[in-house]
Design goal:
- This protein is α/β, with parallel strands linked by helices and about 260 residues long.
- The protein has one domain (about 5-260): TIM Barrel (Alpha-Beta Barrel), CATH 3.20.20.140.
- The chain has helices at about 10-15, 20-30, 45-55, 75-85, 110-125, 140-145, 165-170, 190-195, 225-235, 240-255; strands at about 5-10, 35-40, 60-65, 95-100, 130-135, 155, 175-180, 200-205.
- The chain has an 8-stranded parallel sheet with strand order 1-2-3-4-5-6-7-8.
- α6 links the parallel β5 (about 130-135) and β6 (about 155).
- The longest helix has 18 residues, at about 110-125.
């Protein structure tokens, strides 16, 4: 784990699967973990995450409402007002994850887009990077990024799309983060995209507890499995793991300069 950063994991979701978040983080740092970001998924989960994260100030915290928050008929404006109230006065290092998911069709496409754009606007006002989720919605996400590139940067998380969306995100000043699926044997196209992303815009993640890499596919994931993800990314890029890890650490520090505090 020495010098490895995990840019996207969900402590509360791991807790639901029987993993104690505090013990996990202690073990990770004892093994040389370089840090990462605990990601929010709902409008009011920061309060539950905060007591854990306060013990580990080098772990950044993101707060956001995923596309699943677009279900129902409540006005998006009211959902956002509640979210802003829940996060007021708390440390937030990034807005996310949020975005578009047309695989599961949460709510309507219009509501997903409105919720996505509202959080991009909040990040803009707050001076924060964004962490974006996109699944089977490449065209719509490309349109959004063309209309409003995030001026404080951000991450396309768990990237699983083709080069056109990656290129548009890069043009918008974003970083591209890859997760366990790059290790899956049949995922040649995704590894091809990984090989084309400029090294200074590349990040890696586990998306724990989801998407365990090979040979743990189908099992509960944790940041300890960054080793397999970094190893595959290094082979794909034809770089030593140590060189890749140093580049990603520099990228992370560039996007989140507060990591040096």
């Amino acid at each position: 784990m020495h010098n490895l950063i995990d840019t996207h994991f969900h402590l509360l979701e791991m807790k639901k699967r029987g993993i104690d978040p505090s013990s996990l983080l202690e073990d990770l740092f004892s093994a040389g973990f370089a840090g990462g970001i605990d990601i929010g998924v709902s409008e009011n989960d920061l309060g539950e995450r905060e007591p854990i994260l306060d013990r580990f100030p080098s772990i950044l915290r993101a707060a956001g409402i995923g596309p699943w928050g677009a279900q129902g008929e409540e006005p998006i404006e009211e959902i956002m007002l509640r979210f802003i109230a829940h996060t007021a006065g708390h440390r937030v290092d990034a807005i996310g994850e949020f975005g578009l998911d047309h695989h599961w069709n949460y709510g309507t496409g219009e509501r997903q887009r409105d919720l996505c754009v509202a959080q991009m606007e909040l990040a803009e006002r707050s001076g924060l990077p964004v962490i974006i989720h996109t699944r089977d919605a490449d065209g719509d996400m490309m349109d959004i990024l063309s209309e409003r590139a995030p001026s404080h940067g951000g991450i396309m998380h768990c990237f699983s799309s083709g080069w056109p969306l990656a290129e548009r995100a890069l043009e918008a000043g974003m970083y591209i983060s890859f997760a366990g699926p790059i290790t899956y044997k049949s995922n040649h196209a995704l590894r091809e995209v990984l090989s084309k992303v400029p090294i200074d815009r590349l990040l890696l993640e586990t998306d724990s507890p989801y998407l365990s890499p090979e040979p743990f596919r189908g099992k509960t994931n944790t940041p300890f499995r960054m080793r397999e993800i970094y190893a595959m990314a290094a082979r794909t890029r034809m770089l030593p793991v140590e060189e890749l890890a140093e580049a990603i650490k520099e990228n992370f520090a560039r996007l989140f300069p507060q990591t040096g505090r």
